[in-house]
Each structure stands twice: as C-alpha cells, then as structure tokens.
Design the sequence.
C-alpha cells in the first residue's frame, strides 16, 4: 500500500513517521518546511523514543506525488476549502482518505466534492504533539488514534491501523460511530481551545481557577446536550474524566493557542460554527459555545 | 436640605458638584483623594462648562460628617458590604439614600440593613464621566439621571431632582419602576463592560467588528428574556437604540475596563451574578451572561 500524508505538521508527521519507520511506502506533503525536510529529513522527538525519517519522500505539491491507497489528511481545517483540489492528483478510484482533524462535518463536506468510490473516514487523535521547528516535531504524551468510516469500505483503514500498531501505536482502531467520536472529541476541544485563547491561558491555569473550571464544565454539559439533540449520547462521566485528566496533564498550550500565538488562522469554523449549526438544525441552541465562537472571531479579526 | 455624597469619584463628584455649585449644602466623602480635595477643591471639567468647588466640605470618614437628609451613594458596588456601616453615622430617621450605582438588587440588600424609616432609592445615571486625577473629574457626554424608589416617600428625591435641574442637569426625574430601569441599564452594562475587559477592547472596536456586534446584540436579547421572566418588559427597539447610540459614541472605555486597567476589583457581583441569580429564581438561564461572569472572575483572579 502507498500512503500519502497531506500536511506534515505534528499529527501528520507523527503518524506518517510511524508508518515510514516501520517500512511502509509513505509520501509526505510539506508546505513551507519542504527545504528543511529535504535537508535533514523528518525528526520526531517522541516520549516513545526518538527517530528520524531521512531520506524522506518529501513533496511541496500533490501534483508531483504518486497516487496513494490511503491518504492521511492532517492540515488545519482553516485550509479545508482547498482540500478537494489538493487531493485529486493523488487519489485512485478506490483510495481511502482519513481526515485526522478536529471539528465536525469535515467528512460530509469533503464527500460532496470527491467521487463516490473514494472511501472517506475521520480520525480522532488523542495525542499531545506539536511542530517545534521546521520538519521537527515533539511528541509529548498519549498517541491513541480512533478511525471511523464516513462512507465506503473500512478495509484499507484496518490495514492502516495494523501498520500503526506494528510501528508502536498502542491503540489504533476502527470505531463504528464516527459522529459520536467527533462529538466526544469536541467535548475537550471546544472549551479548552477557545478559553486558552480568549483568556490567554494554559490548561493548568484554567483548571486551577474555580470560575474557569466551572465554565469549562458548564460548556461540556452544553455540548453533551447538543450531541444528544444530534442523536449522540455522551455520559456525563466522560466530561468528569476529561476534566480530571486535564487537571493532571502537564501545562499545555492547545493547538488553537499555538495558532493564535503564531498569528495563524484559528479553526473556528469546523470546531465552533459547524457544531453550533448542526445542533441548531436539531433544535438545540449552544448559547455558551456561541459566545466563544464570536469572541474568537473578534480576536482573529484583530491579527489576520 | 443637607446632602451627603458617599464616594466622590466621577458620578458622585459630578452630581454632588452640580448641587454644591447651585448653592446646596453638600458634604463629600473622599477616600485616597481627600488631601487633593482639601488642596484644590473638586475640579469638574464638563462639556456643559467647567467649574470648581473650592473650598469644599470634604471628609475622609463618615464619622466626621453631619447627618444628611439625602445621601447620594456613588461608590463601586465592590465595596457594598461596607456600605451600611459607612452610612449609619450620617443617617437621620427620615433620610433618603439614593444608590447611583450599576447592577441589580443593591437597594434590596441595603434595605435589609437600614431602619425601615429610611427611604431607599436607586439612581440610573446615563453619563460618560470619569475621574482623571485626584479630585478632578471629566464629564465627557450625556448626564441624564433617573431615580426610582425602592421604599419610602419620594419627597426628598423630588427635591433632589429639582435642585439638579436648577444646576443644569437637563433631565433628572423620578420613575415609577426602579426594577425596570435597572434591567434597562443592564442591557448596556452587561455586554459592553464585560466584553471591553475580556476582549481588551473599546466600545467602537466592538461595534466595528461583525462578530462582537452580533455577540453584543445576542447578549442584549438574553437580558430582555431574563427581564421578561422577572416581570419587566423591554421592547427590542431599546436594544436597537442602544446599539445605534453606542455605534455613534466617541470611543469609550467602560468603567469596568478602567477598573481592570487600574487593577481594581470589578463589579462582577452586582452587574453579573445578581441578575443571573434573579433570572434563575424566575426560571430563566442567562447562559451567555454566565460565560462573561466566569471569564471576568478568572481575569480578576489573575491580578487581585
């Protein structure tokens, strides 16, 4: 199988790197970091053991890449409107595209733009990983990957999971309900990403303050209500567990906070606006999440 | 009639200054600015014409003040828990206390601590005024004062209004429904005060951004809903008018933003928590206002 990685940042570099390290044929798309990748390869500093992919199959455009059986998409959703065009040169009629991204409805929106025969999946990565220098990534903690099919056969996705496990990922599995997992991931992403930016804070400071800890929990309850309206039951115990986990996590800047710090666009559309719209369409108003959405848009407007 | 002013900042200095200027017997309580007041009097730079009260009846404790027929209270509500004790030395059995403050339920809470014979009123000041140096205040715009009785006769409050009008205040009047006016004032105060602090902004920038302008309007609609649950009908046209007025106002730092900039406590309790509790007691959840409340508490915790 031929693998493609679209967006070799923290997530794409990590999972693609694991595949390449264990001998798979992996082709990486870089953007501004293409030169660095050609020079020193892809350097992965990982709490599971450091490794480097050098030489690396690096590209700066999908036009020059081979066609791929499985494509891992790990670009920010802020570039989602260009994704279908980027993918077209590397897709076979029966390729599987896995969107390892945060938010809601990315799969549905992409599906409308690609041939019916292309399988589309979503990937939920539970991992602390970030790009710390050009083509250098730092894997700090965790690493679990859950994949859910949006459409098509899960055959290639199963093979992907098998290869990742060979490469050392302890949990890489297929789930039966993508939508439920997307909402569960939002349960963490919506409060922590937004509030670390709006309140210029980190996860530990948010948890150590009574007011922000309560706000985070209240937002989680709202998300549970929205998910329920959309047909997804999330037990409150999952919110309790997430809060407890975050309380004991090392101080962490969320991906949105890193985007903000580096004056990059933030993933407001897929992480906030889409869930709000989806809940609204099912008769549930996400009043608190709307506040974060509008505050984030104001903040982004100030630097973009 | 003898007038007392408790808290000679922008609001207290302005209305007390107008009374003194027109010949009333006014006694001003200062805190840290007592020395400056004794030295150069109270200086009022006003868009209606500058004036100075010098010499001034200035005090640094209510223990040394004479008993007053009418007391204007213009301290921040953050000091509300000390107010009843501060007032006791200057109250006659039939005094009238007018709380020219922002928020909800200040009158009710104070009433429980003062003798039944003392009349208690609330004052809603529609004015842009701020303290710019010790015992120097700057009156930038507007000046309307509306007074509503919480309990007791409105006789002294009427006399106060008459004197203020003699002194040049175009509109100073008694209203029949204090609670309705308190909620109407919150309609502006809740969104603009909170968001200028949380988003580190000014009124003009909030109005010039589509997302924050929508957020402000959405919060206003929530407040209208809360007021309705509490028995107060506010037509949506009032929200429209406030938004339009603010859009055409000179760039303005709200009082909460000034408190934040000067690392003073913010009026979160009476401006956010009390309305939230009151609405909740009437079965209405102020979900968006709760977000602002908790964000403000987090921010305040960072500097107090």
Sequence:
């Amino acid at each position: 199988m031929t693998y493609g990685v679209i967006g070799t940042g923290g997530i794409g570099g990590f999972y693609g790197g694991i595949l390449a390290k264990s001998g798979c044929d992996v082709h990486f798309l870089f953007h501004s970091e293409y030169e660095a990748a050609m020079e020193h390869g892809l350097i992965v500093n990982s709490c599971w053991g450091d490794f480097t992919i050098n030489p690396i199959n690096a590209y700066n455009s999908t036009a020059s890449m081979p066609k791929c059986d499985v494509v891992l998409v790990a670009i920010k959703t802020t570039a989602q409107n260009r994704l279908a065009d980027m993918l077209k040169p590397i897709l076979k009629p029966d390729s599987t595209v896995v969107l390892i991204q945060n938010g809601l409805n990315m799969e549905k929106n992409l599906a409308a733009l690609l041939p019916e025969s292309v399988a589309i999946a979503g990937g939920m990565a539970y991992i602390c990983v970030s790009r710390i220098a050009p083509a250098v990534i730092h894997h700090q903690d965790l690493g679990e990957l859950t994949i859910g099919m949006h459409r098509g056969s899960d055959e290639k996705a199963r093979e992907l999971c098998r290869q990742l496990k060979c490469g050392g990922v302890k949990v890489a599995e297929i789930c039966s309900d993508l939508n439920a997992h997307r909402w569960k991931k939002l349960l963490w992403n919506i409060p922590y990403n937004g509030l670390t930016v709006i309140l210029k804070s980190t996860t530990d400071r948010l948890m150590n303050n009574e007011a922000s800890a309560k706000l985070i929990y209240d937002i989680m309850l709202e998300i549970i209500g929205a998910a329920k309206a959309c047909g997804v039951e999330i037990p409150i115990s999952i919110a309790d567990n997430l809060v407890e986990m975050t309380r004991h996590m090392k101080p962490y800047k969320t991906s949105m906070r890193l985007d903000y710090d580096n004056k990059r666009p933030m993933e407001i559309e897929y992480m906030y606006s889409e869930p709000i719209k989806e809940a609204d369409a099912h008769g549930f108003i996400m009043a608190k999440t709307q506040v974060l959405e509008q505050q984030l848009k104001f903040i982004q407007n100030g630097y973009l």
Q: What stands out?
A: The radius of gyration of chain B is 19 Å. Residues 178-198 of chain B form the longest helix (21 residues). Residues 2 and 25 of chain B are 5 Å apart (CA to CA).
